[in-house]
C-alpha cells in the first residue's frame, strides 16, 4: 500500500473526487427510474430520491468516521485490520463479487437500452464487446487519468440538464403529483428503495479516500456536495417526468427520460432522444469503468498485476452478459444483486465501524 501511496499517478484532488462520485452514481438507472419509482410512490415519486439522499448522507457519515480511523487503508484492507486475515479475506471476496455482479448488471441494462433504441439488429454479444473494450481500456489506466476522464464526461450531464429545459415547452400537468403525500409514507419509502439502487456507486469513496492528495480537510464537504447534487438531479428528472406523463403512461414507458426527449422536435432537428442517447453512452459507461476499477482494487494486487486483473474482471463481466437475459431473469438477477449490494454498501461498513470502536482498532495518522 505504501508503494501505491507514493505513486503520484494514483493520487486525485478533492475536485476530481467530486466528479468521480457523480459519474459513479449517474448512469443507466436514471433513464428508467421514473417508471420504477412511480409503480409504488405514484405522484409522490419525486419525494423518494430526497429520502434516498438522506440515507446516502447517513452512510457517508459512517464511511467518514471509519476512514478517519484508517486514513491510509482502502476498504478491503480495513476489513482485514478489524476482522483478522481469514474473516477479512472472506468478506473481501463478498465485496469483490458484489462489484463484479453490479458491473455485470449495469452492462446488461446498458446493452438492453442500446439494443432497444439504437441497434435492434446488432447481436448483444457484439454490443457487449464494444462497451467492455472501451471500459477496460480506461479502467487499466491509473486513477488520475480515470478521474480526468470523469471530469470531462460530466459536461454531458450538463447537456442532459440543458436538453431537459427544452421539454418545458411541451404540455405539463401539475395535477399528476397532487395531492402531495397521497401515496402514503410506506409507498414513498418503497420508492426510496428504488432510488437508492440508482444512486449506488458512492461506496467507491471507501477505496478513493487514501489517494486524495494534500490534507483531508474538506473531503467530507466534497462528498456531501456530490450527494446533494445527485439527490436534486434525480428529484428534478422524476418530477419532470411525473408532470409530463400520467401514471398510466409512465407505467408503459421503460425509459421515460428518453420518451420525454422524444417529444422535442424542431425543423432542423428531429429525434432528440436518439441524438441524446448516442451521447449519453459515455456517462453510462463511466459506471462500468468505476465498478471495474473497484472490483480490481478490491483484490489487493500489486500494481504490475493490476492491468491483467482488470482484463480478467472485464472478461468475467462479458461472460455474465452472455447469459440469456429476458425481462424476468434480469428482474430476478437485479433482485439478488440488490440484496448483496445492501450488505456490502450499508451493513458491512456499519458493522466495521462498530467493531473498530469495540475493539479499539484504529491507525494513527496526522491526516486523520
Describe the structure.
This protein is mainly α. Helix content is 72%, strand content 0%. Helix 4 crosses helix 16 (327-358). The model is unreliable at 1-6 (pLDDT under 50).
Short synopsis of the structure:
The chain has 368 residues and is mainly α. Helices cover 72% and strands 0% of the residues.
The assigned structural class equals mainly alpha
* Tally of discrete structural domains: 1
Strand content: under 5%
Helix content: over 70%
Secondary structure topology:
Layout: H1 2-5, H2 14-25, H3 28-41, H4 48-69, H5 75-83, H6 85-117, H7 124-139, H8 143-166, H9 185-199, H10 205-208, H11 219-244, H12 247-251, H13 256-262, H14 272-297, H15 306-322, H16 327-358
Helix pairs in contact: 2-8, 2-11, 2-14, 3-9, 3-11, 4-9, 4-11, 4-16, 5-6, 6-7, 6-14, 6-15, 6-16, 7-14, 7-15, 8-14, 13-14, 14-15
Supply the key terms:
disordered N terminus; 368 residues; Amino acid/polyamine transporter I; globular; 16 helices; mainly alpha; single chain
Amino acid at each position: 500500500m505504501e508503494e501505491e501511496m507514493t505513486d503520484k499517478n494514483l493520487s486525485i484532488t478533492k475536485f476530481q473526487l467530486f466528479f468521480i462520485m457523480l459519474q459513479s452514481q449517474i448512469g443507466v438507472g436514471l433513464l428508467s427510474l421514473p417508471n420504477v419509482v412511480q409503480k409504488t410512490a405514484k405522484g409522490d415519486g419525486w419525494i423518494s430520491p430526497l429520502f434516498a439522499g438522506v440515507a446516502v448522507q447517513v452512510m457517508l457519515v459512517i464511511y467518514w468516521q471509519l476512514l478517519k480511523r484508517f486514513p491510509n487503508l482502502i476498504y478491503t484492507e480495513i476489513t482485514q485490520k478489524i476482522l483478522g486475515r481469514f474473516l477479512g479475506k472472506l468478506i473481501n471476496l463478498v465485496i469483490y463479487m458484489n462489484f463484479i455482479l453490479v458491473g455485470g448488471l449495469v452492462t446488461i441494462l446498458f446493452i438492453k437500452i442500446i439494443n432497444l433504441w439504437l441497434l435492434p439488429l446488432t447481436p448483444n454479444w457484439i454490443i457487449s464487446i464494444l462497451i467492455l473494450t472501451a471500459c477496460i481500456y480506461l479502467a487499466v489506466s491509473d486513477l488520475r487519468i480515470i478521474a480526468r476522464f470523469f471530469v470531462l464526461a460530466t459536461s454531458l450531464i450538463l447537456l442532459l440538464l440543458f436538453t431537459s429545459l427544452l421539454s418545458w415547452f411541451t404540455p405539463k400537468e401539475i395535477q399528476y403529483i397532487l395531492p402531495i403525500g397521497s401515496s402514503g409514507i410506506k409507498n414513498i419509502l418503497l420508492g426510496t428503495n428504488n432510488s437508492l439502487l440508482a444512486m449506488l456507486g458512492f461506496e467507491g469513496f471507501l477505496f478513493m479516500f487514501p489517494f486524495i492528495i494534500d490534507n483531508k480537510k474538506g473531503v467530507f464537504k466534497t462528498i456531501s456536495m456530490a450527494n446533494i447534487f445527485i439527490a436534486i438531479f434525480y428529484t428534478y428528472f422524476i418530477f419532470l417526468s411525473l408532470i409530463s406523463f400520467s401514471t398510466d403512461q409512465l407505467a408503459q414507458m421503460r425509459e421515460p427520460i428518453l420518451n420525454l426527449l422524444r417529444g422535442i422536435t424542431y425543423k432542423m432537428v428531429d429525434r432528440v432522444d436518439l441524438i441524446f442517447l448516442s451521447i449519453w453512452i459515455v456517462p453510462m459507461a463511466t459506471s462500468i469503468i468505476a465498478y471495474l476499477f473497484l472490483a480490481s482494487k478490491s483484490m489487493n494486487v500489486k500494481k504490475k498485476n493490476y492491468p491483467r486483473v482488470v482484463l480478467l474482471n472485464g472478461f468475467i463481466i462479458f461472460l455474465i452478459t452472455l447469459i440469456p437475459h429476458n425481462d424476468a431473469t434480469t428482474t430476478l438477477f437485479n433482485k439478488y444483486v440488490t440484496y448483496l449490494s445492501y450488505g456490502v454498501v450499508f451493513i458491512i461498513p456499519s458493522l466495521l465501524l462498530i467493531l473498530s470502536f469495540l475493539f479499539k482498532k484504529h491507525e494513527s495518522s496526522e491526516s486523520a
